[in-house]
């Protein structure tokens, strides 16, 4: 995408709405700190209000962060062609100069991780029915990617912080920057550089770089263990032998 976006990389073919950096700067009130709702190795996420009045989440990618131009293009392309109630909705993007931003629907309850670990005193723990409802919804989202999308999609970074919750605790998968097209034409796997999050990453993928749909299934199993036990997948504060959740339950 060139022209007013100032983007000189490969073209982005998408139905998502292009925004200028100025439009998103206004929407986030100049990226004010009181609009900040999350941050990580990829950059920062702000709650914003578009000119239309729609409340959205704006992810501003760190220009020196973990999510580069390739991941930006992948996420825009993936979410523009995928549509499911258990996937976060991409509203638009910005590629002004060296700025890279993504605009999503706003998920008011944050991530599943926010409701499992280090809860503030005023936040109640999820009950069992809600935990299983969230697990089922996330599984349905994965099923869509694996069995309904054509070609199939391997999420590659399935974890509790990438499952977002709306006001009714309805789960949606988010952050598709590491997603890959699945194997086609009788192929059993996709060979790729090992990416993902330690603890959630399937061991056979970590050792061989051979990515399959089952790699996501392993990651789903890890999140299910977090839901059942209330423990983090990696927790150095636990006693010796209990740092790794999967090893501890094995």
From TrEMBL:
Keyword Glycosyltransferase part of the UniProt annotation: no
Catalytic activity: L-threonyl-[protein] + ATP = O-phospho-L-threonyl-[protein] + ADP + H(+); L-seryl-[protein] + ATP = O-phospho-L-seryl-[protein] + ADP + H(+)
SUPFAM superfamilies: Protein kinase-like (PK-like)
InterPro entries linked to this entry: Kinase-like_dom_sf, Prot_kinase_dom, Protein_kinase_ATP_BS
GO terms for MF: ATP binding; protein serine/threonine kinase activity
Domain Protein kinase: 31-250
Residues given in the record as ATP binding sites: 59
Entry EC no(s): 2.7.11.1
Subcellular location: Cell membrane
Enzyme class: transferase
Entry keyword set: ATP-binding, Kinase, Lipoprotein, Membrane, Nucleotide-binding, Serine/threonine-protein kinase, Transferase
Name of the molecule in the record: non-specific serine/threonine protein kinase
Species of the source: Chara braunii (Braun's stonewort)
Source organism phylogeny: Eukaryota, Viridiplantae, Streptophyta, Charophyceae, Charales
């Amino acid at each position: 995408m060139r022209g007013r976006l100032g983007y000189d990389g490969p073209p982005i073919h998408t139905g998502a709405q292009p925004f200028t950096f100025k439009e998103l700067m206004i929407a986030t009130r100049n990226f004010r700190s009181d609009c900040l709702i999350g941050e990580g190795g990829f950059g920062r996420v702000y709650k914003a209000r578009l000119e239309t009045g729609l409340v959205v989440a704006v992810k501003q990618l760190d220009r020196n962060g973990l999510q580069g131009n390739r991941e930006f293009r992948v996420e825009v392309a993936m979410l523009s062609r995928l549509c499911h109630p258990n996937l976060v909705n991409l509203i638009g993007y910005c590629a002004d100069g060296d700025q890279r931003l993504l605009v999503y629907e706003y998920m008011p309850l944050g991530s599943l991780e926010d409701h499992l670990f280090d809860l503030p005193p005023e936040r109640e723990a999820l009950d069992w029915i809600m935990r299983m409802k969230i697990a089922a919804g996330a599984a349905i989202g994965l099923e869509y990617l694996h069995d309904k999308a054509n070609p199939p999609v391997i999420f590659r970074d399935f974890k509790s912080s990438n499952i977002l919750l709306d006001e009714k605790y309805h789960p949606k998968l988010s952050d598709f920057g590491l997603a890959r097209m699945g194997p086609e034409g009788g192929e059993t796997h996709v060979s790729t550089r090992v990416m993902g999050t330690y603890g959630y990453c399937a061991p056979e993928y970590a050792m061989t770089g051979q990515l399959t749909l089952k790699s996501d299934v392993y990651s789903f199993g890890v999140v299910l263990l977090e839901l059942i036990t209330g423990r983090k997948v990696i927790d150095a504060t636990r006693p010796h032998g209990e740092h790794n959740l999967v090893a501890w339950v094995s």
